[in-house]
Amino acid sequence: MKYIIFTIGLLITACNLKEKKEQNSQIDQRPNIVFIMSDDHAYQAISAYNDKLIQTPNIDRIAKEGILFTNATVTNSICAPSRAVILTGKHSHLNGKIDNLSDFDTTNVTFPQLFKQAGYQTAMFGKLHFGNNPKGFDEFKILPGQGDYYNPKFITAKGDTIIQGYVTDIITDLTLDWMEKRRDTSKPFLLMYLHKAPHRNWLPAEKYYKAYTKKTFPLPATLFDDYKTRGASAKTAEMNILKHMYLAYDDKLSLETIKELNIDYTGLHNYPINRMNQEQRASWDAVYGPINEDFKERYSSMNDSMLMVWKYQRYMQDYLGTIASVDDNVGRLLNYLDDNKLSENTMVVYTSDQGFYLGEHGWFDKRFMYDESFKTPLLIKWPNKITPGTTENEMVQNLDFAQTFLDVAGIKAPEDMQGKSLVPLLTGHNEVWDRDALYYHYYEYPAEHAVKRHYGIATKNYKLIHFYYDVDEWELYDRLIDPQELNNVYNDPKYTTVVKEMKEKLKELRKKYKDSDALDNHYIKLYNEQKQEGTKISNREPPSTENIEHS
Ligand code: SGN
Ligand code: CA
């Protein structure tokens, strides 16, 4: 009898073990997700979209082996709000992170928390910009606020640390170190690998400032846009390369040069270079010193358009130089996945927190619902699921990411998320994709760059935008015949019916996404209260005065 009971006992244990093992092997098969996001990376500066400015072979590889979205957009073209939309799957007016000024409300449910609960290992490295630490991560090392290019500080769960070197390389080193040493191979993983580059004020690594400061780039057709056909908002925005880009901070002229030339100078000094150690600084000066000398010789003979072109070239040289490092480092990560046989079961996503102006309309920065900042790059590879080399023109948004990743991992998405899983588009089931319009809402005004508050709707054919707060102006663009959005046809009688229909659709969308005039007023009231309390209304960070210990 004893023997029989013992045998039954053994059998039950064996069955349990087998079941556990099967469960484990099922869990093991869930795909890993690597979410790569850079900061302010314009799709115009990825060769898979446009090969006139820079070659990005590693980023392009993601599209070559997967899919390139040509109509990916954001819901609010600014850093922290975009990140909040991505993590919560909700529009800014519902997740509360409407601008860069206030902290993220950590009572929001974010998709990484759901991944962790569902048994994924989770890690985040790089820029978050929330004012507080991320929830739902087994490990994180993040930059404080905007972070620094050289010898950056990182916030970790165990305290702060300064790491010597160049930020883009360091973020990758931290990521690979985690992959190599602390990844739990019994679990699938969610990795958020988030670059600071190519954010202002564009300090490239040595190898790339040496190469890129020698290059000349084609001028955009609208570099000298006079904003004639638009309302007050484009005219009053402070992001014109000629007028609002600083000669020292952005173009890297030294204070000595500016004083010597007697230029009326009110902008910021290029304080981030103060973080460099002696060796880094000497290499920097060896390249930027001669640029200063050259400018001194030419300045007296420059008119405004010559200065505009000079500034545009300086801007592109440094901006694209930082991207060259991002591309190299994306290559390092993709190679690591290959070398460790992880590529097969890993979805890799490359995107940016929004688009950026590379001289179109004479601008730098973002914020507007016009295409260069509304659109964002989106490239995804997922072997055996996505047909390599697919191009997708459907309208998708960063609002869709959370539900997409949850869908890929087989985790149920909360009912109140507002996006749509992209899995049907990834797997070729486009027939079920029925989205015909996108909603957008930007809030950060009055603030740096002076882009007025606006919301709007985009269909494949038209874009209707309403600027409000201290104006009440509407703009309509015919996207098919005017892709550069140079002609506001809102008052053109030919478009009366279009305006009426688009306004109706906009009303429906605002209702669908639970946005309203009452919420607009609520956020204006909040802004005014914060302003009265003296909360900073520009998010420009004070100079990094930290004493860096140089090795
Ligand atoms: C900084 C930059 C701005 C930029 C914002 C927001 N100014 O304030 O040019 O628009 O960040 O960027 S700087 O003088 O401090 O460089 S975001 O990507 O974080 O939204
Ligand atoms: Ca950004």
From TrEMBL:
Residues 359-512 form the N-sulphoglucosamine sulphohydrolase C-terminal domain. The keyword Amino-acid biosynthesis does not apply. Residues 535-551 have a biased composition (Polar residues). Residues 530-551 are annotated as: Disordered. The keyword Cell wall biogenesis/degradation does not apply. CDD domains: G6S_like. Keywords: Hydrolase. One of its GO terms (molecular function) is hydrolase activity. Pfam families: Phosphodiest, SGSH_C. Belongs to the sulfatase family. PANTHER family: N-ACETYLGLUCOSAMINE-6-SULFATASE FAMILY MEMBER, N-SULPHOGLUCOSAMINE SULPHOHYDROLASE. This is Sulfatase. It comes from Aestuariibaculum suncheonense. The lineage of its organism: Bacteria, Pseudomonadati, Bacteroidota, Flavobacteriia, Flavobacteriales.
